[in-house]
UniProtKB/TrEMBL annotation, chain A:
Species per Swiss-Prot/TrEMBL record: Paracoccus aurantiacus
Catalytic activity entry: a 2'-deoxyribonucleoside 5'-diphosphate + [thioredoxin]-disulfide + H2O = a ribonucleoside 5'-diphosphate + [thioredoxin]-dithiol
Record protein name field: Ribonucleoside-diphosphate reductase subunit beta
Active site: residue positions: 111
Amino-acid positions noted as binding Fe cation 1 in the UniProt annotation, renumbered to this chain: 73, 104, 107
GO MF terms held by the record: metal ion binding; ribonucleoside-diphosphate reductase activity, thioredoxin disulfide as acceptor
Subunit structure: Tetramer of two alpha and two beta subunits.
SUPFAM superfamilies (alphabetical): Ferritin-like
One term under GO cellular component: ribonucleoside-diphosphate reductase complex
EC number(s) reported in the record: 1.17.4.1
Function description: Provides the precursors necessary for DNA synthesis. Catalyzes the biosynthesis of deoxyribonucleotides from the corresponding ribonucleotides.
One of the GO biological process terms: deoxyribonucleotide biosynthetic process
Swiss-Prot/TrEMBL keywords: Deoxyribonucleotide synthesis, Iron, Metal-binding, Oxidoreductase
Automatic annotation (TrEMBL), chain B:
Protein name: Protein NrdI
Organism: Paracoccus aurantiacus
Purpose of the protein: Probably involved in ribonucleotide reductase function.
Signal sequence segment: none
GO MF term set: FMN binding
InterPro entries (UniProt xref): Flavoprotein-like_sf, RNR_Ib_NrdI_bac, RNR_NrdI
Family membership: Belongs to the NrdI family.
Gene (UniProt): nrdI
Domain of life per record: Bacteria
């Protein structure tokens, strides 16, 4: 009996949320749980008419893009987020990761809600078959899943995870934002925006944990991880440009999508604490796509981007704690 | 010459942005038990944004604590906000909340730790802003 003790999994300590080692865990837990949603919340059936107005090639493109996104969410749900659990530094981080894993399942499930509302079963089956055979989709998934291997360096798993969350999704997210900017499939776009919001928090949090761990790494280890990160990004970018061309060449959107990829690659690197790779001129995402991402957020033009406007010098009013609790 | 005041959580995005501006800046501490800085001249506040999916809680409690003090609040002249467009309509919402509440302009919004272009625009914009603000209040 005694010999078995060492090989048996240790009983974990009960998680005490009133004793935090890292305040970020609670902040992110609160944010993620407050943001919880299910696809039933979005009236997708209002898009039925809009869907019928898309050309057949546009419909096929949309279904394929969504099966591609479904695959990435499936990977995060069943492999990616669980792979980070053994490396968690705090018990609260483990709890957050299980929330992330579950929401990825919700995301993956949401695309099927779109399909069952808008599409023919045969078209969807064909697209799932396409996703299992598409060379680029399989290649990028392979690169990521290999890094999620249990034997992999804990920080390399985090790098792969942030690249999936903050970079790889965007060749797909582009399309519903594009349709939305043309007043097409606007309810579907609302659903995708919920996913985009969640993925932003996931990328931020995993990137944050990566940076905390990096602080404890040696100089040479840090250099090696940075090399690894940029080299993985180059490899993924290579695949993404081909994936983008395959999907978007027929609708003449490839260059616009690539710009969006550059912009998001830089943001993924920022989540890891690294400098931008692509220069600003390669990241000029079209205003229509930016507006579709964050609708109504630019209605107050900001002063430094505007021309020749004079400033309002306000007087500060009295404030109380409750006043800020909007 | 005027000042910057900023808050940045342990993720350090806003701190990185401020460091790249290379201007004097007072930092509002992360911990609620640490003393708050006391600006002695007009300042621009640089803030990250924290709202949930309904837009609640955009302004960090430490910034609320700072701005609730009349002496500290009196010298604010503008606000710059960090955020992420992925939060949709609530992108950089803290900036708008503070600007509306205190009747000061929202000068600029940037994502995460900002990029080269953001740094150039804010550097140029702040220069112009302080020149015009000084003329108006002279």
């Amino acid at each position: 009996m005694k010999d078995n003790v060492n090989t048996t999994r240790a009983v974990p300590a009960a998680v005490n949320w009133n004793r935090l080692q890292d305040d970020k865990d609670l902040e992110i837990w609160n944010r993620l749980t407050a943001n919880f949603w299910l696809p039933e919340k979005v009236p997708l059936s209002n898009d039925i008419q809009s869907w019928s107005q898309l050309k057949p090639a546009e419909q096929t493109l949309t279904i394929r893009v969504f099966t591609g996104l479904t695959l990435l969410d499936t990977i995060q749900n069943t492999i990616g987020a669980p792979a980070l659990l053994p490396d968690a530094i705090t018990p609260h981080e483990e709890a957050v990761l299980t929330n992330i894993a579950f929401m990825e399942a919700v995301h993956a499930r949401s695309y099927s809600s779109v399909f069952s509302t808008l599409c023919q079963t045969s078209e969807v089956d064909e697209a799932f078959r396409w996703s299992s055979e598409n060379e680029q989709l399989q290649a990028k998934s392979r690169l990521i899943v290999d890094e999620y291997d249990a034997a992999s360096h804990p920080l390399k798993k985090k790098i792969a995870s942030v690249f999936l969350e903050s970079f790889l999704f965007y060749s797909g997210f582009y399309l519903p934002m594009h349709w939305s900017s043309r007043a097409r499939l606007t309810n579907t776009a609302d659903l995708i925006r919920l996913i985009i919001r969640d993925e932003a928090i996931h990328g931020y949090y995993i990137g944050y944990k990566f940076q905390r761990a990096l602080e404890r790494a040696s100089e040479s280890e840090r250099a090696e991880l940075k090399d690894f990160a940029f080299s993985l990004l180059f490899d993924l970018y290579d695949i993404e440009t081909k994936y983008t061309e395959t999907l978007y060449d027929p609708v003449n959107l490839t260059e616009d999508v690539k710009t969006f990829l550059h912009y998001n690659a830089n943001k993924a690197l920022q989540n890891l604490g690294y400098e931008a790779l692509f220069p600003p001129e390669a990241c000029k995402v079209s205003p229509a796509i930016l507006a579709a991402l964050s609708p109504n957020s630019d209605e107050n033009h900001d002063f430094f981007s505007g021309s020749g406007s004079s400033y309002v010098i306000g007087k500060a009013v009295a404030t109380e704690d409750e006043d800020w609790d909007f | 010459m005027a000042q910057l005041v900023y808050f940045s959580s342990r993720s350090g995005n806003t701190a990185k942005f401020v460091a790249r501006l290379g201007l004097d800046a007072l930092r509002i501490p992360i911990s609620a038990t640490e003393p708050l800085p006391l600006p002695d001249q007009p300042y621009v506040l640089i803030t990250p944004s924290y709202s949930d999916g309904e837009g609640r809680g955009a302004v960090h409690p430490q910034i609320v604590r700072f701005l609730n003090d009349p002496a500290r609040r009196a010298l604010i002249r503008g606000v710059i906000a960090g955020g992420n467009r992925n939060f949709g309509q609530f992108y950089a919402l803290a900036g708008r909340r503070i600007a509306d509440k205190l009747n000061v302009p929202l000068l600029y919004k940037f994502e995460l730790a900002g990029n080269e272009e953001d740094i150039a625009r804010v550097t140029h914009g702040l220069n112009r802003f302080w020149r015009e603000t000084c003329l108006m209040t002279a």
